[in-house]
Amino acid sequence: MGVSELLAAESIIAESVKGEGDYDIAIVGGGIVGATVACSLKNSGLRIALIEPQPKAIAASRRQAYALTLQTGRILDQIGVWGDILPKITTFYQISLSDNDHPNVINFETTDLGTEALGYVGEHSVILTAMQRFLEDCAEVHWWCPGRVKQVSYYSDRAEIEVETGEEVKTIKARLVMAADGAKSPLREACGINTKGWKYWQSCIAFTIQTEKHHNNVAFEKFWSSGPMGVLPLPGNRCQVVLTAPHSQAHEWQKMDKGEFLELLEYRTGGVLGRLELLSDRIVFPVQLMQSDRYVNHRLALVGDAAHCCHPVGGQGLNMGIRDAGAIAEIVKKAYQAGEDSGDLKTLNRYQKWRRGENLLILGFTDFLDRMFSGNWRPQVILRRWGLWGLKKIRPLRYLSLRIMTGLFGRAPQITECK
After folding, report:
1. S-S: 187 plus which of 102, 130, 179, 394, CB 3.0-4.6 Å?
2. How would you classify residue 274: left for phi > 0, otherwise alpha for psi between -120 and 50, otherwise beta?
3. In which element (H, E) is residue 76 found?
4. Nearest CA to 353 among 372, 338, 370, 331?
5. DSSP H or E segment with residue 335
6. Which residue in 373, 327, 397, 92 sits closest to 226, CA to CA?
7. DSSP 8-state class, residue 413
8. Three-state DSSP class for 72?
């Protein structure tokens, strides 16, 4: 089915339902994080509007894959959507860390953590399509799709959202607005919530490859002076690769002849995957670290990239957003069951207190990794080699690092236990 047909198939703007226009929660952004919130609140008794500017099929068609932590898997399992996702993604049982061509390779195993796996790699289309399908039979979740938020007005007891649906603008009401509308969140900016952080001197190149040799369900993180390189295993002898390099070099690699680029990549993977074939375009994007000064405002909560962004090293970005989604869902469910106002700042501050500090830890962790493992300054090289030695030899340090990488450090959402 072509794009025009997909757009035509999604042309019904919003479902015509009794009482349309009055909701408990309006989620702005129907990507993976926004959809996770909606899935978490399915059958909770709350009426939810899910507002997404793209047709659902187009939103789910994005060609990208993500590392998913063990904690993410547990959250999606609690929701009830994991059973549809897990058979279509890759589970990895080993993480291999190395620095340039140094022979000291660190291999994290499941025995280091006492778990059956160390993580997963899932494609965007698989994850979001499963969530959309999960919500199909939920009468309490109403898609405004495609729908674009024009303006939000906040009052003492509600928010009013103007949604552009084709040629008309409709106004809906909600007790709480959740902004899952990305790093440049218009909702965050409209409320005057400031952010702190910086843009890195690097860009990332993301693409998919076919490998001659099987990846053996190993996730690789190789550190080069230009920046980290992550190689994530996918089904069908494929891998998602994310290369980090200074901006100019990243754009040079994007334009490099395909044959030369594959030679470079085969060298950087040490030949362990054999001959490589490029399966997708090389997408270049700049990276940044960003933390919002606050995650909540009167009748507004920020989730995912609207609240924070981190360097892709370690694959933590989406996982932070899914933990945000699980946390806010748990808090809102409990507030609803206790007869509390879910949009009240007293309720929302519980979410901010929970997630802002934990996210700051991950932001610092990924920033440290990128800065420590990028560059050739001799003292820096010596220090990081000692760090890798420590990870290899000091078991408590390995265990703590793995707990952070797999999302098992900190408070876990308990969505299904809200009674």
Report:
1. 179
2. left
3. helix 70-79
4. 331
5. helix 317-337
6. 373
7. P
8. helix
pLDDT tens column, 184-237: 999 999 999 999 999 999 999 999 999 999 999 999 999 888 899 999 999 999
Find tokens 């001959």 and name the residue. Answer: 275
Burial 212-226 (b: 16+ CB within 10 A, else e): eeebeebbbbbbbeb
Residue 95 φ then ψ, to 5°? -120, 125
| Residues ≥6 apart with Cβ < 8 Å to 403 | 113, 409
> Are the C-beta atoms of 172 and 164 separated by less than 8 Å?
no
pLDDT in tens, 75-90: 999 999 999 999 999 9
Integer CA distances (angstroms), 113 to 71, 95, 121, 217, 407, in order: 13, 12, 19, 17, 12
Kindly state the tokens that stand for 183: 């790093």
* Six token digits for residue 248: 């100019």
Q: Does residue 6 have a pLDDT over 50?
A: no
DSSP state of 338: T
Picking from 65, 51, 78, 53, the residue whose alpha carbon sits closest to that of residue 323 is 78
Place of tokens 């959309």: 132
| 3 state SS of 95 | strand
Angle at 353 between CA 186 and CA 332, to 5 degrees: 70
Establish whether the linkage from the previous residue to 233 is cis, with ω within 30° of 0: no
| Helix H or strand E encompassing 389 | helix 378-393
Token digits for 28? 């702005």
Pairing of strands 218-224, 227-234: antiparallel
What is the amino acid identity at position 152?
Answer: V
Distance CA 277, CA 258 (A): 9
For residue 330 the two structure tokens come to 């748990």
Tokens of 402: 């793995």
Write the single-letter amino acid at 181: D
